[in-house]
Amino acid sequence: MNWKKLLSAKRWGNEDRFAGNEKEARSEFQRDYDRIIFSSPFRRLQNKTQVFPLPGSVFVHNRLTHSLEVASVGRSLGTIFYNRIKEIDPNVDETIPLLAEIGNIIASACLAHDLGNPAFGHSGESAISHYFTTGDGKVYQDRVTEAEWQDLINFEGNANALRILTHAFAGKGTGGFALTYATLASIAKYPCASIAGHDKTNINTKKYGFFQAEQCGFKKIADEMGLIKVSDEPLVYKRHPLVYLVEAADDICYNIIDLEDAHRLKILTYQEVENLLLPLCNDVKLPERLSEMEDDDAKITLMRAKSISTLIGQCSQVFYNNQEAILSGDFNKSLLDAIQEPFLSIMKYIERISIKKIYNYSSVVQIEVAGYKVMGGLLEEFIPAYLNNESKYHKKLVELIPNQFKTKATDDYTKILCVLDFVSGMTDIYAVEMFRKIKGISFPSMS
Predict the structure, then answer these.
(1) Residue 235 within any structural domain of the chain
(2) What is the value of pTM for the model shown?
(3) End of a domain among 358, 379, 395?
(4) What does the pLDDT average to over 84-104?
(5) 69 is in which domain, residue-wise?
(6) Which has the closest alpha carbon to 247: 307, 345, 318, 176?
(7) What is d(CA 438, CA 135) in angstroms, rounded to the nearest whole number?
(8) What span, in angstroms and rounded, lies between the C-alpha atoms of 373 and 143?
(9) Where is the signal peptide (predicted)?
(10) Which end of the chain is more exposed for a tag (fewer CB within 10 A), N or C?
(11) Average pLDDT over residues 119-132
């Protein structure tokens, strides 16, 4: 793979507009960022669970604030890489004109990386899959292909994000968000079909990155940029190099900021958080500075900033040092898993503590259980209604589905995806309210 092709500024659905016009394309990646941040799917992230239940009396991060912070970290990672290349090769802007835009490409991809996540965090993904594996949705297995079935029983937010960004929803035009190819490829952590997305030994196939419905589209993007193809059947590619930086930004943010939220919710004490973060700060003068501060939240904010700065430096160094392996598709671990000691061991310990004390905390588990009930309940109503539409009740339910999520296609797989587009796009609050109303638990207001 080479940077000239990898930084393609072609736009999805509008490929010819800026093709070959590098001077114009320098600002195209900033336009990607703006298109995402002003979009409805992005705004809805403010009412989607990151880890802790929403809403609450104490502010914690949601998917929107998380995505903004990831974009900030991602831009820094990209800018550091460009500056290092520029130091060695002052003429790099002439040989690779769009390399200076790496920070903007990564920031845009970071903003979009969680767009496909349904309500209730990762439990929402599991609930959708559960509906097809052990719920009422099992009856559809014989009505779709094996590859399509794998999409449904392993519903993946990463693949759903690509669908949101590229699918021509009814009445919305033909180009989706019309983002650049480089930005679209940079969100594909697992550039393979679902039927291949079970191999945990390879970083690009731990999960999957596109539904069967978007496979031809992703192939078009990947081939345009020269991604390394591993196989045709099933379709598997090596990662776009910038995926590593987008992934690192995400990993850094949720590992560190979940600790901050846990302290605000009194799940972890100040001393527990200090013991975890202070060794990451890499600042011998920091303990003295902390001793002069009285507000525990302010102390943790400072340590959080210092920790993120350390990890940005570590991950950017790994990326820079391993360019050859990354460009050849041979780097088989995340950047955060390749940082130096003692920081690697510290991060592994933070991960263990987070699983034990944060992700298994009672309110977190409760929202996961609620997610199963709500998401499963919505699917068991809307999917049979949209596929069969054989009763007055079904027709009423179908009327509740916005026109943008409907299709003229007649095959079951496409129609099921349309319902998943509708349900997975719901916020936590909207999903709960819709569930209550169609189940008769509450009644809509007549005002």
Answers:
(1) no
(2) 0.91
(3) 358
(4) 92
(5) 3-190
(6) 318
(7) 18
(8) 25
(9) none
(10) C
(11) 88
The whole-angstrom separation of Cα 414 and Cα 238 is 27
CA dist., res. 296 & res. 242, Å (int): 36
81-95, 152-166, 186-200, 355-369: segment of lowest average pLDDT? 355-369
Taking 3-state DSSP, the helix, strand and coil percentages for the chain, each rounded to the nearest 5, stand at 65, 5, 35
**Rounded distance between C-alpha atoms, residue 273 and residue 354, angstroms:** 11
Q: What is the pLDDT of residues 29-71, one digit of tens each?
A: 999 999 999 999 999 988 887 766 555 555 677 889 999 999 9
Query: Can you count the helices (H) and strands (E) in the chain?
Result: 22, 2
Contacts of 191 (CB under 8 A, 6+ apart): 185, 204, 209, 210, 218, 222, 227, 236, 237, 238, 239, 240, 243
183-196 per-position pLDDT tens digit:
999 999 999 999 99
Angle between helical axes of 392-399 and 362-388 (0-180°, round to 10): 120
**How far, CA to CA in Å, does 164 sit from each of 125, 168, 179, 328, 405?**
15, 9, 11, 29, 11
Measured in residues, the chain has a length of: 447
